[in-house]
Amino acid sequence: MKALTRAALPCTAVLLAVLTGCGSSASVSSPPPAPPASAPTPTASVTKWDIDPSFNATDLAWIELMIPMDEQLLRVLGLAEKQAADPAVKKFATEVAAGHKTELAQFVALRARSRLPVRNPHEGHDMPGMMTEPEIVTLGGTKDQGFDPLFEKNLQEHLDQSIVLARSITTDGKDAATKKLAASIIATRTTQLQQLAGL
């Protein structure tokens, strides 16, 4: 996973930087980036769909990013439930997974209500807060005492990045339910970071 320094960036700029700064050789069916004065958003490539006007571009960008982030983390948590050496780490992974499954269902429902297309515009991208496929393979092949610190490092990066992104919704999002979910994620992730530090 790639960690980014975010302190100097406004919240919306953080979300847009994540969405437009991911590295990939895969082609993406979206128009060329707009000048900085009109910040690029994923809605530029989905205007053909009848998007619910209760959502703004920041909401839509967050929903489209968090679905693959949560889906991927559930894979990683599944590895921890099987391979972690410390029973406390296994238990924590199970607890985090339960919350993420509920959260993922909420994101899928928001995507449906917003009328975004079912797609992953970030597939194949190198995204902050997400492991690359080779990193997941490496984690899956790591056994015994070597697994736990590697898992904990990657989980911390996911939790940290999720908080950064959720803050952009609480300040610049529009849809009430989306903003409520963002606030809940900030609180939950903050608690999970404290619990992770105590393992």
Detail the poorly predicted runs. Answer: 1-11, 23-46
User: Fraction of residues in helices?
Assistant: 55-70%
Work out the helix count.
Answer: 6
Range of strand content: under 5%
The first-level CATH class name of the domain at 51-117 and 132-197? Mainly Alpha
Structural class: mainly alpha
Instruction: Give the radius of gyration.
Output: 17 Å
- For the record, what is the CATH homologous superfamily label of the domain at 51-117 and 132-197? Ferritin, core subunit, four-helix bundle
Distance between the termini: 21 Å
**Basic shape:** globular
Question: In CATH terms, what is the fold-level topology of the domain at 51-117 and 132-197?
Answer: Ferritin
Please give the CATH architecture of the domain at 51-117 and 132-197.
Up-down Bundle
Major sheet characteristics: none
How would you state the average pLDDT, rounded? 81
How many beta strands in the DSSP annotation? 0
Question: H/E series, N to C?
Answer: HHHHHH
What would you note in describing this structure?
With 199 residues, this protein is an all-alpha fold. It has a domain at 51-117 and 132-197: Ferritin (Up-down Bundle). It is 61% helix and 0% strand. It is built from six helices and no strands. α2 runs antiparallel to α5 (147-172) and α3 (87-114) packs antiparallel against α6. The longest helix is centred in the middle third of the chain and has 28 residues, at 87-114. The protein is globular and about 50 Å long. It starts with 10 loop residues before the first helix and ends with a helix.
